Amino acid sequence: MNISAWLKEQRIAAEAYDADNLLNDFLREMKRGLNGKPSSLAMIPAYINTCGTIPPNKSTAVIDAGGTNLRICLAQFDEAGKVKLSHFCKRPMPGRDHEVTASEFYAVLTDALGPLKDQFEHIGFCFSYPAEITPNLDGRLIHWTKEIKIPQLVGQCIGAGLIQALETRGTHDKKVVVLNDTVAALLAGMAQGQTFSASSYIGFILGTGTNTAYVEQDQNIGKLRGYQGSGAQVINIESGGFSAFERGPIDRQLDEQSGNPGGHLFEKTISGVYMGDLALALLKALVAEGCFSASGGAGIRALTELSTIHIDNLTANNGHDIGPLGNECFTEEDRNVIRTVFRAVVDRAALLTAVNILAAVVKSGAGHDPAHPVCINIDGSTYYKTEGLADRVQNYLSEMLKNRNLHIRCIQVEDAPIVGAAIAGLTAFN
To answer: What is the SS3 assignment for 84?
Structure first.
């Protein structure tokens, strides 16, 4: 059996897709979402822009509420755009191990911020949970994820609650800007991007999930979506929801079996939490096609789950833990089939990722001058740690950018959520 041809029939192989058609479909969904028409891309305004200059040697408070940890500190940038963090506090995210009240949550924040009240005016709050960002730069919590249990905060504006808690504790005249982690990734690129005269900024995350943010120049779009500021504004694409592309039968099967059928279809083709499951479903289908030894086929049938990390370690041949794929039931020929399948999954993910990023570049209207490239801050363990993925993305991007005479520079910013939240705190109210 020709496995490569079979993977193309399943629409797993990148060759099954036309990059130009994908790009056009992505751009169409972006435009529909911006104009408030039905679209698989939410295109949520962040109500902040990238026009402001980061003031050097001025401190802002930063809060990073992630899935596992809560981090609080002061941040400032020097004249070269290098960030300095001080008074760093890190602790488990409240509500992770047991239910807490809203008051208990805010007490953790005010305990850390109160002693520093004379050293900051503004707070940049990176809030990595589903929230509706409001025009006054607050965020209304839609629901908790990542097993956090603070039910009193659902439906509430997180920033307003923090300001009230601070005032109750005697800390007055502070302002807070709430933003999600993808917008923070975009802003985190500003400090570096300003040093090489970037024409615009994009934040892209590919880890457990995926999302993208870019800078929209059309001020009419901003007014339509309720933005009252001047100039360009940052848009959270919610790119993991893109669905205007044809998937294969096994893609559709996995979607139907997922916890959110019909949702986040793009994310289910490229993100770390799904690639192992997708590969396992493909391997089980190949067992039925007789592509494994008798013992290897039995081993595949016995698997109920397969982590992306284990199959990636096998493919990379890096000597790291390959989990159940290390079982002696698999011959080297069996493992070669497994590698072929996963490399195809990764290659398709690379193509789709490149299209996603390119769509944001095109929609930004920037990057036409090589002296002023679009700065793309890429974050996420799946992107950087999956064997061959980053290189394949860059190869696809290089070809597609060349054909359109567009120019980008990809960077990686350490502690992007904190850096981005700091920039928001320093620039959002200018």
So the answer is: strand
Token readout for 87 is 């008074």
Pair (383, 255) in one structural domain: yes
pLDDT tens digits for range 381-391 = 999 999 999 99
Q: Is the pTM of this model over 0.70?
A: yes
Domain with 230, as residue range(s), is: 1-46+193-415
Judge whether 202 lies within some domain: yes
Q: Considering the domain boundaries, does residue 51 fall inside one? A: no
Q: Is 313 left (phi over 0), alpha (psi -120 to 50) or beta?
A: alpha
Which residues touch 128 (CB under 8 Å, ≥6 apart)?
A: 64, 65, 66, 67, 180, 181, 417
Query: Is 425 within the bounds of a domain?
Result: no
Q: Say if residue 127 is in the same domain as residue 242.
A: no
Q: Where are the alpha helices (DSSP H) in 36-76?
A: none
Using one digit for the tens of pLDDT, what is the confidence trace for 10-69?
999 999 999 999 999 999 999 999 988 999 998 988 888 777 788 999 999 999 997 678
Q: How far apart are CA 361 and CA 340, in angstroms?
A: 32
At position 108, the amino acid (one-letter code) is V
Burial 121-157 (b: 16+ CB within 10 A, else e): ebbbbbbbbebebbeebbbbbeeeeeebebeebeeeb
